[in-house]
Design a protein that fits this description.
heterodimer, A: alpha/beta, about 20% helix, B: 4 helices, about 55% helix, about 15% strand, elongated
């Protein structure tokens, strides 16, 4: 979390909270998002949702109304390191607008710097576009 | 705020320098096509983002909410299918062996020797 470290340098106070969400659709998510466990108490708080990559924004487009309703947060903003362009348009049509955005990346499969594909490639220093070989790669397994 | 636009070709002019760029475990060789953003660029950008946030939230204490995503149903459906497949296969094998064993056990031995 380099962002938080940078904020520490700036003497900016903050809190951190984690929530786990689950959606019941497949790759092309359409809805039915639930928050697992308890929703943290965010009453009267200024909330900044931190994301690594904002793709279509489906998760957040469902999460933000739930949070607004249930947690009574004072304000909700989104901060994302990467935003994926849809159809390679510079003006993104993602469902959620993010106030703080690091980079706008092409609509390709990006991995590295914590972003994974099937739990692989998190262990890479930089962000790359995955190749077909990388997508097809299957980890050798000993069991059946 | 406007993001830094990364094109399909990547942002780094150092992209040509493959030797220096290939900072990843050797088993990943050939798994990537284009270097988009280096860690150095990420660190610089997050510092800028932090300044923007600090400007907006000075004197307040925002809550940074990290969203963890659960397993996608695609995977769970696959797992369920695998379990069913294994179960059905086990049943078939049990039945198969039961019948073959029964054949062995219940084949009247006089069949074999009745004409001798």
């Amino acid at each position: 979390m380099n962002l938080l470290e940078a904020l520490q340098e700036l003497r900016q106070g903050y809190y951190t909270e984690f929530i786990k969400v689950k959606s019941y659709e497949g790759l092309h998510t359409t809805g039915n998002l639930t928050i697992e466990g308890t929703v943290p108490n965010l009453e009267g708080k200024d909330v900044i949702i931190v994301e690594d990559i904002l793709d279509t924004g489906t998760t957040l487009s469902h999460l933000i109304p739930i949070l607004t309703k249930q947690s009574k947060a004072k304000s909700i903003e989104v901060c994302t390191l990467l935003i994926k362009r849809i159809n390679n348009e510079p003006q993104t049509q993602n469902k959620v607008t993010s106030k703080y955005i690091g980079f706008s990346v092409p609509p390709k499969f990006v991995i590295g710097y914590g972003l994974d594909y099937n739990e692989l490639y998190r262990d890479i220093r930089d962000v790359w576009i995955i190749s077909q070989k990388g997508i097809d790669y299957v980890v050798p397994r000993d069991d059946c | 705020m406007d993001p830094i636009i990364i094109t399909d070709e990547g942002n780094s002019s150092s992209n040509l320098d493959e030797e220096n760029n290939a900072v990843y475990p050797p088993e990943y060789k050939g798994h990537f096509s284009t270097l988009l953003i280096t860690r150095k660029e990420i660190l610089e950008r997050t510092a800028t983002l932090a300044e923007f946030i600090h400007k907006d939230y000075k004197g307040r204490r925002p809550v940074f909410l990290c969203v963890l995503k659960g397993a996608t149903p695609v995977r769970s459906v696959f797992v369920i299918c695998m379990i069913y497949y294994c179960a059905v296969r086990a049943v078939i094998e049990i039945l198969y062996f039961t019948f073959t064993d029964m054949q062995i056990l219940h084949t009247p031995s006089y069949f074999k020797y009745s004409f001798t």
